[in-house]
Amino acid sequence: MNQQLEGILLRALKREKGARKAAEKILEGKSTEFYDLTQKLKKSNFKLEKLIAEKSSELRGVFENIVDAYVVMDLRGNVIKMNEPATSLLGYDNNQENINLFTLVDVSEVEKVKKSYSKLINNGSITNFQVKINTKSNDQKLVHINASIIYDENHKAIAAQGIVRDITEIKNLELQKEKLLLKLGKSNDELQEYAHIVSHDLKSPLSSIYALVSWLKEDNIGKFDKNSLQNFGHIESTLEKMELLISDVLLYSSVSLDESKKLNVDLNIVIEDLKKIIFIPSHIKINVKNKLPVVFGERTKFQQLFQNLIGNAIKFNNKKNGLIEIDVSEKKSFYQFSIKDNGVGIEKKYHDKIFKIFHSLNDHKDSTGIGLSIVKKIIDLYNGNIWIESDYGKGTTFHFTLKK
Amino acid sequence: MKTLKILLIEDDAIEVMKFNRTISKLKLNHEIIGANNVEDDLKLLAQKTNLPNIILLDLNMPKINGIEFLSILKNDDTLKYIPTIILTTSNNQKDLIACYEIGIAGYVLKPLKYEDYVSKIEKLLAYWSINELKNTNERNRTY
Question: How far apart are CA B105 and CA B100, in angstroms?
Fold first, then answer.
């Protein structure tokens, strides 16, 4: 019996030992696992710390190196943090004094800022906010602000950050520019007005002289000899030339661009209309070789342009069968036109001079030399070029471009 | 054709001579009133006793601007009925539009040549002689 008991106990003990060994083995395995985990955790912690340090340093860099003023404030508008440019812009330093948003903004702007600040808190950001502020030295400045809200991990708003840019100068320049443009427009109008007044003041005495000469003739019929009468005739034609000059100067001075009158103009119709206005002698033919384009601009300017060139081509034609050819070719960014005649031609040495004001080559009765200056001025207005080709005695071709 | 009483508002002496000479050259019987001095012309109109049938008004006068003068006329309950024709050398569109806006009965450009002037005045006066005009002289008015 004892021996039997002893056998049971021994077996039990053996089982126990085996179980314990197994347990120890499991424990040992677990503990290695645990150790590994700890090591891993340590490693990733280290990595995280490194990352935070990196990011913090990055942020600090941004904070310190940013050219614009950067300000962080709590939700009540108290400044918590500001960078160097902010200190120099505002004149305040948050390390030495307490600054609040509402002490910075101009009194007239407080209501506007209150509204925008609550908008910022509700929406999370505002952009392009312009406000007048007063610096510590009491300079008023206009600033432009882009701002956003900083949240904690529970997405609770904790602070506001903003980039502040001084736009006082830019705004001043803009205003200055507007004023200058206004002034320029005004002085242009004044110049126009002045040209009209001068032209009136010059024309009136001319018509008086004309009347006086007529009366001298009327009151002394039969008393003047042929020579004197001829001289009266010269006085009259000189007066007419003078009047034409004044009219043309006025016309030239009124060539300016009126943006509001710009529209799409079909040049084919312009030419058709011109053929009805201009007197074309029966021995002169006008041919349009290709279909002309539709261009964008002021109709009257294009009409003046073609009228002057075609008019010249007619005026200075001395051939039995006069021929005027109008043509166009389309280029990438412009149209190139040509108006070719078989008239008197222009000597090479005059090719540049003819576009200058008052430079009429011929002593033509109804030519003051302003026509081509007007043409040049119009082409300049449309960023084009004009040049001529001419065979003296055989004819002239005017080439010009108009930007598309 | 009726004879007209014409007030010429013009302060250039030769222009006045031109107008008078034109009338006599055309052998017209119109009566020309006016002091050849804008201020006196205004006084004459203010009396309202010797009012013209038509007024010919120059725009560019040194003492008073023709447009101002026109405004005075058109703001007066009696004078506003007198047809006023602008006679000027200025074809400034701005002036022309301003005049029509205030109210004018015509806008005639003074030409350079005397013959052309005579011909324009002849037509202008012929037109107004065949027109019915409001009797503006209140004292002459019979009720």
Answer: 8
